[in-house]
Specification:
The structure holds two protein chains of two kinds. By secondary structure, chain A is mainly beta. Chain A has no helices and eleven strands. In chain B, the strands form two sheets. In chain B, strands 2, 4, 5, 6, 9, 10 and 11 form a seven-stranded mixed sheet that branches. In chain B, strands 1-3-8-7 form a four-stranded antiparallel sheet, with no helix packed on it. Classes of the chains: A mainly beta, B mainly beta.
Chain lengths: 108, 124
């Protein structure tokens, strides 16, 4: 099974800050990676797929990069509505599909 | 507008069973793979099972293999998850999620729409 490891597990940031979240795969997954945002009590929301493709309607301050085993999600100029938990997910090799443990973006 | 509405959750004793449903609308149901993803209270996301658009291919997480069965009725635009031999660690919100393709390629296993979830609590 492919293990997905996110870091950090939480980050404190202020509105306007740049935030970078890292996701590492235990083996190469090419670019078969997605990023999701989840707010408390809500279902996850797909932000990015294929490592760097921005889903239609998602603000351009979100971007993804990486290939192989290391990936990043970057939020430039953090907005109040961006405080949430972010998950990566690999779709290269399954079953099982696997998610990272999550990164909580908190208000500083 | 794509809508996914889960139902069937509840409180069940260890060893018990439930049947979860997900009613889909707003897209051509048969053209898309569907999955169930769960989230234990205060924990992260765990993929449970997936089924291709035709229903001919299914996948399961190791933790539920042999206990859970995924199926779909494309004439009713409904996804199902039969959950048997429930354990305390199956307690979670169960989400149904729509894939971005019909299940043939990995692209199908990015989840672009999710339901609101149904809570399954396993406790005596």
């Amino acid at each position: 099974d492919i293990q997905m490891t996110q870091s950090p597990s939480s980050v404190s940031a202020s509105v306007g800050d740049r935030v970078t979240i890292t996701c590492r795969a235990s083996q190469g997954i090419s670019n078969w990676l997605a990023w999701y945002q989840q707010k408390p009590g809500k279902a996850p929301n797909l932000l990015i797929y294929a490592a760097s493709s921005l889903r239609s309607g998602v603000p351009s301050r979100f971007s993804g990069s990486g290939s192989g085993t290391e990936f990043t999600l970057t939020i430039t100029s953090l907005q109040p509505e961006d405080f949430a938990t972010y998950y990566c997910q690999q779709a290269n090799s399954f079953p099982p599909l696997t998610f990272g443990g999550g990164t909580e973006v908190q208000i500083k | 507008e794509v809508q996914l509405v889960e139902s069937g959750g509840g409180l069940v004793q260890p060893g018990g069973s439930l049947s979860l449903s997900c009613a889909a609308s707003g897209f051509t149901f048969t053209s898309y793979a569907m999955s169930w993803v769960r989230q234990a209270p205060g924990k992260g996301l765990e993929w449970v099972s997936a089924i291709s658009g035709s229903g001919g291919t299914t996948y399961y997480a190791h933790s539920v293999q042999g206990r859970f069965t995924i199926s779909r009725d494309n004439s009713r635009n409904t996804l199902y998850l039969q959950v048997n031999s429930l354990r305390a660690d199956d307690t979670a919100v169960y989400y149904c999620a729509k894939g971005r393709g019909d299940g043939i390629t990995s692209f199908s296993y990015y989840f672009d729409y999710w339901g609101q979830g149904t809570l399954v609590t396993v406790s005596s």
